[in-house]
Structure prediction request, 241 residues.
Amino acid sequence: MTLAARTGVLVAMPEEGRALVDAMRLEDRLEHGRREFLFGDLWGERTAVVIARCGKVAAATTATELIVRFGVETIICTGVAGGVGEGVAIGDVVVADELVQHDLDPRPLWPRHIVPLLETGSFPVDAPLSDRIAAAASDHADAGAGGRVHRGLIASGDQFIHGPAMARAIREALPTTLAVEMEGAAVAQVCYEYGVRCAVFRTISDRADEDAAADFTGSLGAFAASHTLGILSGVLGSGGA
Ligand code: ADE
Prediction:
């Protein structure tokens, strides 16, 4: 049997993907590379949902598998993030316009945040898809979920940001950062390299401050999965990604 999907939805943690998996008409599943790929119909679209695990290596590996092995044309990376931009509050949604690896620093050989030999460090998203995600997020907020929708820079790194000094360091290096997480820029880099459409949106689970760990855990259990589900239903359910 050939496993394939048109769209890949990549989350890091099981809690971030559970509601999607429950909503899916499951057709195939594959345990591969110590992660599980679930294939099925999500609002009329053949989709692969995968729990990648946390961090850039896991995210990049999983994105590559989705593209090379399962032939996806689009990857949507979602889940939660820490809000570091002014006015980015718990329960808000951030839709990425670009993504940077905040912990990538090849100086003095290359400038900070630049991926050596790729000559860029800012990875793009698919603008029309991101516009549709932002519209669906606004509709979801207006329909009762609450919160605001922001567009801009998401910074990714292999660190859980949990204090003012850590958050300040990221804001100083990348002043327009709205949110931090651990996977998005890796997915965006792989999509850029392979020429695959990419979008990243995140529900804010914490403020990357001293309460971040407790807020993260609380938000994951409370609303993160339902936000993802509500928003994606307005994207995949209205003509596909
Ligand atoms: N994902 C959710 N909150 C985060 C934080 N504070 N740092 C990194 N990744 C996160």
User: Anything to note?
Assistant: The chain has a mean pLDDT of 95.
